[in-house]
Amino acid sequence: MYAIVDIETTGGHAGANGITEIAIFIYDGHTIVQQYETLVNPGVPIPRYIQSLTGITDEMTATAPPFEAVAPDVYDLLHDKIFVAHNVNFDYSFIQHHLLQAGYDLRTKKLCTVRLGRKIVPGLPSYSLGNLCRSLKIPVEQRHRAAGDAAATVRLFELLLKQDNKKAIATALNASSKEQFLPPNLPPEQVINLPVSPGVYYFHDQKGKVVYVGKAKNIKKRVNSHFTGNNPSRQRQEFLRNIHSITCEVTGTELMAIILESVEIKRLWPVYNRSQKNVEFKFGFYAFEDQEGYLRLVIEKKRKYTTPLHSFPLLVQGHQMLRGLIREFELCPRLCFLQKGEGKCAPIPDHTCRGACDKTEKADSYNLRVKAAINHMQHQQPSFLIVDEGREPEEQSCIMMEKGRFYGMGYIPRDTAVTEGNMVKEWLTQYPENEYILNIIHQFADSNTSRLLQFS
Predict the structure, then answer these.
(1) Which of 116, 151, 189, 374 has its CA 20 to 30 A from that of 350?
(2) How far is CA 373 from CA 155, 379, 381, 414, in A?
(3) pLDDT tens-digit profile of 317-366?
(4) Are strands 283-289 and 295-301 parallel, antiparallel or unpaired?
């Protein structure tokens, strides 16, 4: 037995909106055996544009029962039926949410006539209820009223039942089928064909633009998890409506998926990704030669399209490192911008500065120590490869850190005997780094030493 449902609401998501009208047609596959319809007092004002669309006004609902009063009847009609609606997850999310608030937990199988229409009568220009009924010559009376739209959905469902030669309805109702949970605009075969491997997946909107990037140890399982449950929030309902296609990129390991996800979020800036979209105020060491020929070390915010000698997230970390280099290599604090003002710097009496600030020490001599400090700073940073499983048996994955910097990652032939970093660069793709990626790689390296190949 099917319960074919339509509702009118005060807005697009159940969490902050009410139901203004509900219609339920109980259909046995041949005829309508019971019909229920009522206006509902939503408890909140109906926006003017919705009043214009539906014709339902605040005055009409003022004397109507609240949903709590009709909840027992609604639950009795629905709980043992197959819930059918056009864009079923919208209607279902509202009714389930409001029933739960009234003390009823609705859990039924669902059928979406949008999804079924795409499968059973493919190739139509639009699958909105009005356009679909127009294409199939199904009359619609009282458009945007619950009873009128529900009656049209009954006629549409009747036609779909008759033309379902490939048993799309039975497939959708199969206990192992996830189709009833899928967004209305997402082709089910795209989910069915997803790999069960680690990787990154992309949700695209109607125009093909990426609206969400995610990473997974098992792409298929993770993608399906996005569509389970009935979260009534506005953002989730909008998110589901905007998913029209899925693409993915398989990676050899979960670590590579995490790195690629971070790179892609920074590159694509998808509208539904929240994490990792903060601006990173990262600092770095830079060197330049001044007009007198002296090499100067300076700490600055990391500039776009530049490569610092070394980078760090906090300014205080850079100052600590720079002070250590000044002490060890007897550099001038003034020429490193740690001391302001004119004249000699403070360490000269202690003989920890040899006088480059007042030209007592010549540039050639001073610059040799600056270069030695730079070399020391860079060689203190680790260089290593993380060698792990590939996407297929014939290859192995490789992530490269070079002098504390993330160089890139890729795949190398499994029979390659790797002894040093330059051997693998031709197989690797270079990617931009960020603090999140560096932290993830170092955390993995610290707890997976057997995967590491150190090199200088």
Answers:
(1) 374
(2) 80, 10, 13, 39
(3) 889 989 999 989 999 998 999 887 776 777 655 667 888 888 889 999 99
(4) antiparallel
Contact 436, 279 (CB under 8 A): no
Average pLDDT of the segment spanning 397-425: 87
Q: Are 93 and 230 in contact (CB under 8 A)?
A: yes
List the domains of the chain with CATH numbers: 2-181 (3.30.420.10), 188-268 (3.40.1440.10), 283-380 (no CATH), 384-454 (no CATH)
| CA distance linking residue 340 with residue 311, whole number of Å | 23
Q: Are residues 195 and 257 in contact, defined by beta-carbon separation less than 8 angstroms?
A: no
Query: 110-112 and 82-85: which strand pairing?
Result: parallel
Token duo for residue 305: 């399209």
DSSP 8-state secondary structure symbol assigned to residue 41? B
How do residues 21-79 score in pLDDT, each as one tens digit?
999 999 999 999 999 999 999 999 999 989 988 999 999 999 999 999 999 999 999 99
Taking the CA atoms of residue 432, residue 433, residue 436 and residue 438 in that order, the dihedral angle to the nearest 10 degrees is: 150
